[in-house]
Amino acid sequence: MENTNISKPRVNKTVMFLTILIVLFAFVLMVMGWLYYTEKQQAQETQNQLIAEKDSISLNLRNIIIEYEVLETDNENIKKKLEEERQRQNHHVTKYTIRSDGSKSGPRVR
């Protein structure tokens, strides 16, 4: 009989220890689950921000390309006008050339 009294407190201590261990593991598991959830939420927010930033940069790039094409067209138009003006100036210069005897040729002034 004495033998059963000694084993009961030992069994109670073991059961108590296992219960505390299970509760502790359950608590750790809940904390790890909460950390996983918050990390996943932060990762999703970061991904959404990166997608929005990528879209914004893509839009800015498209706008810059359009502006570049407009400037390129403007530059070509300016080059054409400059060449036309040079040809006109060359035409006027050839009209008023100096002869070898020192006299000027060109239209007569009345």
Could you provide a short overview of the structure?
This protein has 110 residues and is an all-alpha fold.
**Largest sheet, strands/sense/barrel:** none
Count of strand segments: 0
Which geometry do the CA atoms define? rod-shaped
User: Helicity level, as a percent range?
Assistant: over 70%
Euclidean distance between termini CA atoms: 151 Å
Tally of DSSP helical segments: 1
- Extract low-pLDDT stretches: none
* Secondary-structure element pattern, one letter each: H
> What is the structural class?
mainly alpha
Task: Give Rg in angstroms.
Answer: 46 Å
> Averaged pLDDT, please?
85
Commentary on this structure:
The chain is an all-alpha fold and 110 residues long. Helices cover 85% and strands 0% of the residues. It is built from 1 helix and no strands. The termini are far apart. The mean pLDDT is 85.
Topology at a glance:
Blueprint: H1 2-95
Comma- or semicolon-separated keywords:
mainly alpha, 85% helix, 110 residues, single chain
